[in-house]
Protein backbone atom coordinates (compact mmCIF):
# COMPACT_ATOMS: atom_id res chain seq x y z
CA UNK A 1 0.00 0.00 0.00
CA UNK A 2 1.40 3.41 -0.95
CA UNK A 3 1.89 5.20 2.37
CA UNK A 4 2.47 8.76 3.51
CA UNK A 5 3.90 9.11 7.00
CA UNK A 6 3.34 12.48 8.68
CA UNK A 7 5.27 13.42 11.81
CA UNK A 8 5.22 16.46 14.08
CA UNK A 9 7.84 15.04 16.44
CA UNK A 10 7.32 15.86 20.10
CA UNK A 11 5.70 19.20 19.31
CA UNK A 12 2.14 20.39 18.86
CA UNK A 13 1.53 21.24 15.20
CA UNK A 14 -2.24 20.86 14.71
CA UNK A 15 -2.09 23.15 11.68
CA UNK A 16 -0.04 20.52 9.80
CA UNK A 17 -2.44 17.71 10.76
CA UNK A 18 -5.41 19.86 9.68
CA UNK A 19 -3.72 20.76 6.39
CA UNK A 20 -2.68 17.22 5.42
CA UNK A 21 -6.11 15.77 6.26
CA UNK A 22 -8.02 18.51 4.43
CA UNK A 23 -10.22 17.38 1.55
CA UNK A 24 -7.96 19.16 -0.96
CA UNK A 25 -4.71 17.67 0.35
CA UNK A 26 -6.21 14.17 0.51
CA UNK A 27 -7.42 14.54 -3.09
CA UNK A 28 -3.91 15.62 -4.15
CA UNK A 29 -2.42 12.56 -2.42
CA UNK A 30 -5.01 10.19 -3.89
CA UNK A 31 -4.36 11.58 -7.38
CA UNK A 32 -0.68 10.67 -6.92
CA UNK A 33 -1.55 7.10 -5.94
CA UNK A 34 -1.14 7.33 -2.17
CA UNK A 35 -3.65 5.16 -0.30
CA UNK A 36 -2.69 5.41 3.37
CA UNK A 37 -1.90 8.20 5.83
CA UNK A 38 -0.04 7.38 9.03
CA UNK A 39 -0.14 10.40 11.33
CA UNK A 40 2.13 10.94 14.34
CA UNK A 41 0.35 13.87 16.03
CA UNK A 42 2.52 14.44 19.09
CA UNK A 43 1.04 16.73 21.73
CA UNK A 44 -1.60 18.11 19.38
CA UNK A 45 -5.30 18.20 20.12
CA UNK A 46 -6.22 16.42 16.88
CA UNK A 47 -6.25 12.63 16.53
CA UNK A 48 -7.96 11.88 13.19
CA UNK A 49 -9.90 8.63 13.08
CA UNK A 50 -9.71 5.86 10.48
CA UNK A 51 -12.67 7.28 8.52
CA UNK A 52 -11.63 10.94 8.68
CA UNK A 53 -10.33 11.13 5.08
CA UNK A 54 -12.68 9.56 2.51
CA UNK A 55 -10.81 7.29 0.11
CA UNK A 56 -7.70 7.20 2.30
CA UNK A 57 -6.84 4.69 5.00
CA UNK A 58 -5.84 6.65 8.13
CA UNK A 59 -3.96 5.56 11.24
CA UNK A 60 -3.10 8.10 13.96
CA UNK A 61 -0.99 7.91 17.10
CA UNK A 62 0.66 10.36 19.48
CA UNK A 63 4.04 8.83 20.33
CA UNK A 64 6.06 5.63 19.97
CA UNK A 65 9.46 4.66 21.30
CA UNK A 66 10.70 4.89 17.71
CA UNK A 67 9.22 6.00 14.40
CA UNK A 68 12.09 4.51 12.39
CA UNK A 69 9.93 1.65 11.05
CA UNK A 70 7.17 4.08 10.04
CA UNK A 71 9.72 6.16 8.15
CA UNK A 72 11.21 3.11 6.41
CA UNK A 73 7.74 1.87 5.34
CA UNK A 74 6.69 5.26 3.96
CA UNK A 75 6.74 6.13 0.28
CA UNK A 76 6.69 9.80 1.29
CA UNK A 77 7.41 11.45 4.65
CA UNK A 78 5.80 14.78 5.47
CA UNK A 79 7.45 16.26 8.52
CA UNK A 80 7.80 19.34 10.63
CA UNK A 81 11.23 20.91 10.16
CA UNK A 82 12.80 19.57 13.33
CA UNK A 83 16.44 18.63 12.78
CA UNK A 84 16.01 15.17 14.30
CA UNK A 85 13.04 14.26 12.12
CA UNK A 86 14.73 15.59 8.98
CA UNK A 87 18.00 13.77 9.66
CA UNK A 88 16.28 10.47 10.51
CA UNK A 89 14.16 10.59 7.34
CA UNK A 90 17.01 11.61 5.05
CA UNK A 91 19.27 8.99 6.64
CA UNK A 92 16.65 6.35 5.83
CA UNK A 93 16.66 7.47 2.19
CA UNK A 94 12.97 8.36 2.12
CA UNK A 95 11.55 11.26 0.07
CA UNK A 96 10.89 14.16 2.43
CA UNK A 97 8.49 17.09 2.26
CA UNK A 98 9.08 19.45 5.18
CA UNK A 99 6.27 21.71 6.34
CA UNK A 100 7.73 24.70 8.13
CA UNK A 101 5.77 26.07 11.07
CA UNK A 102 5.87 29.73 10.07
CA UNK A 103 4.22 30.73 13.35
CA UNK A 104 7.36 29.98 15.35
CA UNK A 105 9.42 32.90 16.58
CA UNK A 106 13.09 32.95 15.50
CA UNK A 107 12.36 30.36 12.86
CA UNK A 108 15.52 28.25 12.56
CA UNK A 109 13.36 25.53 10.99
CA UNK A 110 12.99 27.63 7.86
CA UNK A 111 16.77 28.06 7.62
CA UNK A 112 17.29 24.30 7.94
CA UNK A 113 14.63 23.52 5.33
CA UNK A 114 15.97 26.12 2.90
CA UNK A 115 19.52 24.78 3.10
CA UNK A 116 18.54 21.12 2.74
CA UNK A 117 16.29 22.12 -0.18
CA UNK A 118 19.12 24.11 -1.79
CA UNK A 119 21.21 20.93 -1.54
CA UNK A 120 18.33 19.02 -3.24
CA UNK A 121 17.70 16.72 -0.27
CA UNK A 122 14.08 17.69 0.39
CA UNK A 123 11.13 19.80 -0.67
CA UNK A 124 9.53 22.29 1.72
CA UNK A 125 6.43 24.40 2.09
CA UNK A 126 4.15 25.88 4.74
CA UNK A 127 0.70 24.69 5.78
CA UNK A 128 -0.90 27.26 3.51
CA UNK A 129 1.01 25.97 0.46
CA UNK A 130 0.91 22.24 1.29
CA UNK A 131 -1.90 21.26 -1.10
CA UNK A 132 -0.33 23.10 -4.04
CA UNK A 133 3.05 21.54 -3.24
CA UNK A 134 1.48 18.06 -3.14
CA UNK A 135 -0.07 18.70 -6.56
CA UNK A 136 3.13 19.94 -8.21
CA UNK A 137 6.01 18.25 -6.36
CA UNK A 138 8.61 16.31 -8.31
CA UNK A 139 10.30 13.84 -5.99
CA UNK A 140 12.65 12.70 -8.76
CA UNK A 141 14.77 15.86 -8.29
CA UNK A 142 15.80 14.84 -4.77
CA UNK A 143 19.39 13.79 -4.15
CA UNK A 144 20.37 11.23 -1.49
CA UNK A 145 21.67 12.59 1.80
CA UNK A 146 24.95 10.95 2.82
CA UNK A 147 24.46 9.59 6.34
CA UNK A 148 27.31 8.78 8.66
CA UNK A 149 28.91 12.21 8.58
CA UNK A 150 27.65 13.77 11.83
CA UNK A 151 30.42 16.36 11.82
CA UNK A 152 29.16 17.72 8.49
CA UNK A 153 25.63 17.94 9.83
CA UNK A 154 26.86 19.61 13.03
CA UNK A 155 28.79 22.17 10.99
CA UNK A 156 25.74 22.80 8.83
CA UNK A 157 23.52 23.27 11.91
CA UNK A 158 26.05 25.69 13.44
CA UNK A 159 26.02 27.73 10.22
CA UNK A 160 22.22 27.61 9.86
CA UNK A 161 21.78 28.83 13.43
CA UNK A 162 24.49 31.48 13.10
CA UNK A 163 26.85 29.95 15.63
CA UNK A 164 29.87 30.08 13.30
From TrEMBL:
State the Pfam families in the record. Answer: Glyco_tran_28_C
GO BP term, example = dolichol-linked oligosaccharide biosynthetic process
- Which cellular compartments is it found in? Endoplasmic reticulum
Domain of life from the UniProt record: Eukaryota
Which key words are in the record? Endoplasmic reticulum, Glycosyltransferase, Transferase
Enzyme Commission numbers on file: 2.4.1.141
InterPro entries tied to this protein:
Alg13-like (IPR039042), Glyco_trans_28_C (IPR007235)
Task: Kindly list the GO CC terms recorded for this protein.
Answer: endoplasmic reticulum
User: Which ranges carry the Glycosyl transferase family 28 C-terminal domain?
Assistant: 3-146
* Spans through the membrane: none
User: Single GO molecular-function term?
Assistant: N-acetylglucosaminyldiphosphodolichol N-acetylglucosaminyltransferase activity
Q: What is its main location?
A: endoplasmic reticulum
* Assigned protein family: Belongs to the glycosyltransferase 28 family.
Q: Spell out the protein name for this chain.
A: UDP-N-acetylglucosamine transferase subunit ALG13
Tell me which species this is from.
Scleropages formosus (Asian bonytongue)
Amino acid sequence: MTTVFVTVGTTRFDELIEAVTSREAVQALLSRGYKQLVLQVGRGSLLPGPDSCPGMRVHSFRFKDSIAADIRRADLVISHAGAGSCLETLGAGRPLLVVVNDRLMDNHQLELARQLHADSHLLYCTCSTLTETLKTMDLSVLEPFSPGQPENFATFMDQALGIH
